Write the structure tokens for this entry.
Amino acid sequence: MATTPAIQTEALVKRYGRSGATALKGLDLTVGEGEVFGFLGPNGAGKSTTIRLLLDLIRPTSGTVRVLGVDPRSSHELRGKLGYLAGDFVVNGRQTGRELLDYLGDLRGGVPRQRIDELAAALDLDLSRRIGTLSKGNRQKVGVVQAFMHRPPLLVLDEPTSGLDPFLQQQFVELVREASGNGQTVFMSSHVMSEVQQTCHRVGIIRDGTLVAVEDIDDLRKRAVRKVEVVFGSPPGLDQIAGLQEPSLTGNVLRGRLSGDADAFIKSIAGFHVTDIVSEEPELEELFFTYYAHPQEA
Amino acid sequence: MRVFWKTVRDNRRGWIGWTLAVTAVASMYASFWTSIGKNPEMAKAMETYPESLKEALHLQNLNQPESYLASSVFGLLVPMLVAVFAVSAGVKAIASDEEAGTLDLVLAHPVSRVSLALQRFGAIAAVLAVMGTVLCLAIIGLRGPAEFPEVAPSKIMAICLQLALFGLFFAALSYAAGAWTGKRIAAIGTGAAVVVLGYLADSFLPQIEGFGWTESISPFDWYLGGEPLRNGVQPGHAALLLGLAVLLAAAGTWRFNRRDVTV
């Protein structure tokens, strides 16, 4: 990649305390500029540790971190170009959303009030209420606004939608897509596969402190198995069907699983009268589960 | 200065409340002077107290306004209130925020840890200055009505300055312990332990044979031992309180800048 990667770590190790647990065991990670990168893995795998290293909240035991080409330790100004949101967004509850956002905006050198109001309106968030009186979901919205309001070149999101209802998760997906459309880079850890599937270009899977796989979402989608159901006017024999796994014929309905190129299958049924065809969106969740459960296979 | 003003704003209710409480307590005791210190029967009653008890509680010469004010107003309740306030404010600056998990968000913004920490500590220093000033003005205002005009305003200013520095020392201590460890309990414990030991070292321990020296290592002695109400500002004591406060704040900030922020 010709441009500087948004995030680059090399042989990154993080051990807590002198004899404490090793959370990261030599992480090599590169996230390109403008990419939406999903960072997946089971709890305790090292996702939050990685994110806290990117923000300079903790310091590496060894190895290097570069965020937008800069060592996070070397410059607090770097964080002006970042937006950060944690899944458990906690702030002093005695202030209103407006007070908090004004303060955080000031720390960033000012954020247009119009932008804050637009985001709040889009999320249906009342900024005049004290944060302590808001529900978990509404508090999280305040967090979403502060992360996105200054249109940072890099968004670092740590399980950002935990506690949000499906509607808000969808709103969030839209915000990430919009950011991506603006050329912003998004680095997002998540357990919600649907939002990963809808937003990410690539995903990295971390397990036990090391990166076990990096996959392109489009490649995954192509490789993923999807269920197919075809209804015929008068069905062909099973031996005439090509390119379909586990084909079964019940009356006029053919069911089976399709992976990779669909051409052979389509050509093989093209000569028959097809009254209906249903192909499901591939579920990547199952693919991810294999990484979660069986690290050796990765 | 945004962090400084935000700290002031977030704490305004508590800080105003403490300032008013300290001033009210001090004013109340100061206005008892006419009925206690000037009362000959009270003085007679005091004479029957054992000398060591009076020394421990700083109750000697209660019939002089300087002594009365030093013991009843500035001797125990007011410095204790100021110390408790200072410790709690110092704990809040970093350790409480960190333990609540709310420090992460601010530190994810373009503000350096040193600047953030020092602005917060600076806000505490400022409120202690305000508290000292308000208290000073209130006591000066009571000189006429409460009948102790012979105590010069400059001497009242002196003791209030030493009191503010005394508070700053304890704020710096618990701030430093919190900034160093990130643990609330460590910050509270350090502050509270030094308040209690410091008080004992200045009052009861010196009564024990061979423990007289403990007085000189007590922050209470650095604050009141030189009798600022009689002798004015004690430069040595004031410098000691201020110097240690600066040193502690610097050490805590130094460590805070280098360590991991706890989850």
User: Anything to note?
Assistant: Chain B touches chain A through 21 residues (CB under 8 Å).
